[in-house]
Amino acid sequence: MVVDFSAGLRDKDLNDEVSVNDINVLRLSFESIVKVLAPFVPHICEELWEILGHKPGIFSVPWPTYDENAIAADQVEMVIQINGKVRSKLVVPSEINEDDLKSRVMEDQKIIENLDGKKIIKTIVIPKKLVNLVVR
Q1: Run of H or E including 66
Q2: How many Cα atoms are found within 13 Å in the side-chain-facing hemisphere of 7?
Q3: Which domains are present in the chain?
Q4: 103 partner at 20 to 30 Å CA-CA among 16, 25, 72, 116?
C-alpha cells in the first residue's frame, strides 16, 4: 500500500493542491507508524524520527490518536441463515432497524428459493451480524 501510494506521488505534479495534501497524509502516516513501532525498535525509530525532521526524541511525543467516527462503518454485511446454515449475505446500513432488516431478508432471492413452501417459526436477529430463520 505504501509502495503504491509513493509511486503515485512520484508521478504527480507537485504544484497542485491535491498533491500537497497527499504528501501531508503520507507524512502523517509515516510519523504515526514510527511512533507505534518505537517501543519495539527504538533505535531505528529514533533515527527515522530525526529524518522526518523532528528534534525532540520520539519518546517525548504523545501516542497517536484516532477519531472513532472515522472508523465507524456506514454499512455492514449481514449473514442470513436458515436453520443455522448460511444461505445468503446482505449489505445493509449499519443503523437499520429490525423490521426493515426482516423485510430486506424476505425480499432476497436466495432466501425466497430456500423458503419454498416452508413455514418460518422464529426469526433471530443479532444486530450488525446475522439473521437466522428457523423454519419447518
Answers
A1: none
A2: 4
A3: 2-65 (no CATH), 75-135 (3.10.20.590)
A4: 72
What CA–CA distance (Å, rounded) separates 20 from 100?
Answer: 44
Between CA 110 and CA 89 the distance in angstroms is: 9
**Predicted TM-score (pTM) of this structure:** 0.58
43-96 confidence digits (pLDDT tens): 999 999 999 999 889 999 999 988 888 888 889 999 999 999 999 999 999 999
With H, G, I as helix, E, B as strand and everything else as coil, classify residue 124. strand
Helix (H, G, I), strand (E, B) or coil at 87: strand
Determine the residue type at 122. Answer: K
3-state helix, strand, coil in the chain (%, to 5): 45, 20, 30
d(CA 89, CA 91): 7
Count of H helices and E strands in the chain? 6, 4
